[in-house]
Every structure is written in C-alpha cells, then in structure tokens.
Amino acid sequence: QRHLISAADLTRDDAVLILDTAEEMARVADRPIKKLPTLRGRTVVNLFFEDSTRTRISFEAAEKRLSADVINFTAKGSSVSKGESLKDTAQTLEAMGVDAVVIRHGASGAPYRLATSGWIDAAVINAGDGTHQHPTQALLDAFTMRRRLVGRDTGLGRDLAGKRITIVGDVLHSRVARSNVELLHTLGADVTLVAPPTLLPVGVPSWPCEISYDLDSTLPKSDAVMMLRVQRERMNAAFFPTEREYARRYGLDADRMAKMPEHAIVMHPGPMVRGMEITAEVADSPRCTAVEQVSNGVSIRMAVLYLLLGGAAFDAKAAPEAAN
Ligand code: CP
C-alpha cells in the first residue's frame, strides 16, 4: 500500500506485519543511540489542522528516529487562517519536495481526498480525521494488547484471536472506537461497545461487534477495557446524560476495576478527563496502560513510515545505527 487512510484497509497479514515491524523498531529504543539511517534524505510533513499532543509528538519522534527531514505544520498561525484551501496548502508543501504527509483534520475524509485527488505524489498517513478514522491509534492499541495479553513474540498467529475487548463511552464521536472495532475484528478479537444509547452512531448495528448498555456485567468478561473521552467539543446540543450521571453509569473507578479479571488491562487513548470517564486512582494504577500506549505509538509510527517509505524486511539487530 502507498497510503494508510483507514484501519479497514488493512488485511490480517498487513496488520501483523506492522505489529511485528513495530516490535523490531521498539528494540531501537533500547539502544544507546535511538536512531536508524533508514529515511535519510526523505522529507515528512506533519500537517495538523486539529490539536494533538500524543499523535503529533510521537510521529515527529518516529520520523527523527528514522533520520527523516521533518517539517511541522499547524493550521494555527498558517495561511489557513487567511482562507487557504487544503488543496493549495498541500500543493505548497508538494512544491517543496515532500515524500510523506501525516495529516490530522477535523473533516472526515480529508486524508482520503489528499491521497486520491492527484494534488500530491507523497504517501498520506491519516493521523485522525473527524469522527472517521485514527488507524495508527488502533495499531498502537493492538500492539499494546498483544504485548500485555499474548506476549512479545512475533509472527502470524500472534494476534488477538479470542481476546475480549470492551470499548466504553462516547462511541458516536470517536474515530478511535471505529478504527479499533475494525482492526480488532480483523485480528480475531471479540469487541463489545458499552455506551449510553445517545452516544452510539446510527449505523452501529452493522459494525462487527456486540453492543451493551451495562458496564458492570461486561467487565468480568473483558481482557481489556478501553475508556473513551467524552468529546464535548464535537457536541452541538447540551451533553446528555449529565457528567455526574455519565460518571455514575459509565465511569471506571476502583470498585468497578475490581470486577475485571486479574490479568485484564485498562486502556485510554488520551487525553483523559479524570473524574469523568476514569478516576485518578484507576488512571494511575499499574493496570492502566495509557502511558505505555504513548511509547508504543512511536514504535508503531516508525513501522508505518518504514513500510510505506522504505520497504524491505527489517531486523533491528542487523540494522546500523545513525550518527546522532
Ligand atoms: N490519542 C490521541 O490521538 O491523542 P492526541 O489527540 O493528543 O494526539
């Protein structure tokens, strides 16, 4: 593939190759010089039209670890504020000689448009578009689950077959939920969505997952519980249920966490709203993988960049280190 737009575009073999390559990339982080010469002379633009902390910084870290030249663009402070279009912005970057564009955009479909419009030749990687997709988040989540629930060995068959994953909260506005449901299904996991009816998308019955409105009965049957943030910035009307009601019915606190099997993990893509979907006690517990997910994101993004721009089989033990 030339682009990464949607988790739905990945076959099981594609996904396992990315997870396995990310395991090799993670070994680079354990070396004294955390850098490979793989993308030397290649230019990657991080094109962010929406706010981000984890995704933007971890893509930049991944690109620098692969020795790419990195250009960071944020809509704030750019000519977008003067009315410049996505097409003109993209073509301005293309004129500077770009090999890959990592794009986050508030409009669902913007990365697909960029990849298929013919405006640019560069590889396009979706870093989150509207309520649609966030494929590298789903990949780093699957990587985290595989490490915690299956082990660090690689190869086909080392996937999440039969694992029971519960995703809780604002599914309606969540590109993370949509991407995870698709990728986890591809990897053989059984996914249950738990949400108030008002925060489920109309089309959810056709998704490859179960639906529940009862968190307490789902927790004991879960190997991983992924809490979602309530995305108030994407809501036009008053938030329903109220924050208090939401926390009471769908928030994860220590009492609820105790209902999970002992081996089960708590996940959160971040940013977390402590006290609403997750209490501070749960967020800071060793069972919560939120910080580990961020570290794993660098390895996954290195793997995606490497596979889209580089290509050949990769072995961290054999690869030379780049000078820092
Ligand atoms: N998980 C995630 O996409 O976080 P950011 O919005 O901080 O990038």
TrEMBL record:
One GO MF term attached to the UniProt entry: aspartate carbamoyltransferase activity
Binding site for L-aspartate: 82, 175, 229
Binding site for carbamoyl phosphate: 54-55, 104, 134, 137, 270-271
SUPFAM superfamilies xref list: Aspartate/ornithine carbamoyltransferase (SSF53671)
Record-linked Pfam families: OTCace (PF00185), OTCace_N (PF02729)
Ranges in coiled-coil conformation: none
Keywords on record: Pyrimidine biosynthesis, Transferase
A single cellular component GO annotation: cytosol
Lineage: superkingdom: Bacteria
Enzyme class of the recorded protein, top EC level: transferase
EC number: 2.1.3.2
InterPro entries associated with the record: Asp/Orn_carbamoyltranf_P-bd, Asp/Orn_carbamoylTrfase, Asp/Orn_carbamoylTrfase_sf, Asp_carbamoyltransf, Asp_carbamoyltransf_Asp/Orn-bd
GO biological process terms on file: 'de novo' pyrimidine nucleobase biosynthetic process; 'de novo' UMP biosynthetic process; amino acid metabolic process
UniProt record similarity statement: Belongs to the aspartate/ornithine carbamoyltransferase superfamily. ATCase family.
Subunit note: Heterododecamer (2C3:3R2) of six catalytic PyrB chains organized as two trimers (C3), and six regulatory PyrI chains organized as three dimers (R2).
Record-linked NCBIfam families: asp_carb_tr (TIGR00670), PRK00856.1 (NF002032)
Entry protein name: Aspartate carbamoyltransferase
Originating organism: Streptomyces colonosanans
Gene name of this polypeptide: pyrB
